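Because discrete structure vocabularies remain unfamiliar, we first show an illustrative case, written as a sequence plus integers encoding its fold.
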Amino acid sequence: MSEVEDVRRDRREVTGAVRALLADGTAVRLRELTDADADAVAQLHRQLPVQDRYLRFFSAGTTSVPPVVERPGSAWIGAFRGAGLVGVAEYTVGDDPAAAEVALAVGHPEQAHGVGTLLLEHLASLARHRGLRRFTARVLPENTRMRRVFADLGLPVRTVLDRDELAVEVDLDPDARYLDALAERQQRADVASLQPMLRPRSVVVVGASRRGGSVGNAVLRSILAGGFTGTVAAVNPHAAEVEGVPCHRSVADLPLPCDLAVVCVPAATVPAVARECGERGVRALLVISSGLSGDPGPAHDLVEVVRQYDMRLVGPNCLGLSNSDPAVRLDAGFAAPGTAAAGEVGLVSQSGGVTIAVQDALRRLGTGTSTAVSTGDKYDVSGNDMLLWWRDDLVTRAAVLYLESFGNPRRFSRFARRLAARIPVLTVRSGSSEAGRRAAASHTAATATPRVVRDALFRQAGVSALDRLSEVPELLALLLWQPLPAGRRVAVISNAGGAGVLTADAYVARSLPVPPLAAATRHALARALPSGAAVGNPVDTTAVVAPAVFADAVRVLLADPGIDAVVAVTVPTALGDPGDGIAALAAGPRRTATPLLAVRPTQPENVAAVGGAAGQRVPCFADPAAAATALAHAVTRAEWLARPAGAPWAPPGTGPDLARAAGVVSRYLREHPAGGWLPPDGVEDVLEAFGIPVLRSAVVDGPDAAVRAFVQAGVPVALKAVADGVLHKAAAGGVRLGLDSSEAVEGAACELVARFGGRLRGLLVQPMAAPGPELLVGVTADPAFGPLVTVGLGGGLTDLVADRAHRLVPLTPADVGEMLGEFRAGAALFSPDARQAIDGEAVRDAVLRVGQLAELLPEVAELDLNPLVVAARGCVAVDARIRVEPASPGDPATRALRI
């Protein structure tokens, strides 16, 4: 096996079992099989109908001899319901070490539920991690089901008729099409599994107390008051009825199984109640009870019961959930009556307090929630599940998330991106303190704070990240009631000059220019407004202006093609209130796609609606800064929706030499199992393998050898110390530049030997690069979020100016284009009007290649190109460092439940 295959095998092996959902929402367990499972495999084959055996084995016969599962070059994965094996997928490597023949068998009752596709997904993942690149198969032409499984998988498939059989070849590298197909399958399965939770036909409250101050009593009353359209039952062994609902002594005594059980019992008894629910056929649990996560015993037991009976679980330690759909009307929680209202906003939150605050704010705004889920300790159902639920829920027009942790950030990114393409997705940041900064040696890692990583995730996924809870209703009012702006240019109109100036300042501070108005617009305003009015931008109508006149002036601004949004600031006076003109304008027909915002400093609410009809409301803010922040988010969303599709990037030519790069990493990790910083020649080999331009260097052992290396180079050189504990050579005084003679090289070498003494491990001799702007390009691998690529100012300015942009891999050309224009120096360097001609395309190519390196070599924990020197033609890394460490198992391109 090659070194690249060896390093893949070392870093990712399938261990244990995982649960995953089928198309009908039920779950199976998947695990790699051993010889101990051989009899079960043989039994599965024997139970196949005659036609299925013929299609699988090209013969209707069968054998009682169990297969040899554990043999070199093969792997088997099985799908189990309970203890029963319901499907197997296997591969066997042949003469080509990069290819394996694959076979599949699914029990007849389980066919058409997606078992075969799920098995192939996980078998393909295992094969990829063991260095395989292709699956092959021989399929009979009449085996339409198997042909459909291959076609629906989403991986590139080639089929050729070979005599009476079809020769099938499947490429295993996951591309965008495969990830999209995977997401579609996951969505269908996830939504089906959540039906008993969010659209139940029957609900039982376990722990429904008669005591008015108890959670169980409050939940039952909430369900009844909400008008739940299904059947309600209660379990209380000490009561005949609670709130008019007859009680049963236990879940086992229920006359019929319920879809959803709401569990409100002490933590220690939750696992036993959950087991009763599983045995009685309950399909979903909402565990309100707290205290489980502080006690490993009950927590473990609850998870095991949920796994055993294939139930979905919300909680524990949560507020509850609701679905305001008139066909459901479920409010299973213990928030105060009247907190929530039915509406069009989906809400998922780990915090019950945040859930209550957002629901109350939306109710006061005049909207409400479509579905709301408080996930609490989030053992199973998470924000990812709700992103999938809302994708096809046309009632939900916006989604709000409060997530204190991410179970699977890469899936979150994929699901959020798909949802954000349809509706706005908002999140309230949490845990963004600088106290979360982790210690790191490289410049790149030192900037990768938790907030930086999460903001990169949110930005790429199209999620609007907010800092205050009050921003949620403010932004939703704008996004739900007004069209998105076509650009960033803002017109401000006010009947109070000072308020107009403050408003204009707030928008300019958020990179929303307030430009001069077109001449035609100024003339129209001059005709409409009193003689003392100022018709620049901002527009000052004077304090004495009638509502109708003010509204006419706003219409003029809305019609200006050079304006993308209009902000109307009004203050009532003893002579009138021009704000009434905004209300009249909102009530009339909309004649423009330009959004209109109102600011009214005297109103008590942070944001309120002007105009009552749906689709004709104008958001009115008390604070001009809040209005500016909301519009900035709306502009960002419009720009995200308009950006080019994030097509995956492929380098020109043959692509990277992955075997060479992985070989360097594999050899280093064999000698240094805990990982560490690659030596200079190893760094250069890895970079060259990915086509990243780097100045080759020579590491020598003393002044004489340094002089010989200089003579061989034939050009001025830089001399750098390679010393223990020294990563940033310039900061440690370990760099000498522009050495153009043997005497200069010898003298500099002697200085470095004297300076570092016994710590010196060598002297690095490197040709001088042509002068040019210096950039930092780096990578930090986050164990949950994946690699983060950073671009910013490099060289001596790296630590002086915190001017950087960040994105998570995989990178697209659109991502890199945004990064280079996002940090302040980049916006100047790469603009068409830049004073210095530099090769922007070369930099973009280098950053994309760094992103590809980070994606394909997950052992790379940190990488710095600092500086990357940019010239009029090309760019080159003058100094580079790479830290590697063993990578954890796992594959984000497979379906699996959290528990």
Notes: Residues 1-15, 434-448 have pLDDT under 50 and may be disordered. The chain has six domains: 3-189, 199-316, 335-434+442-484, 485-635, 663-693+771-899, 696-768.
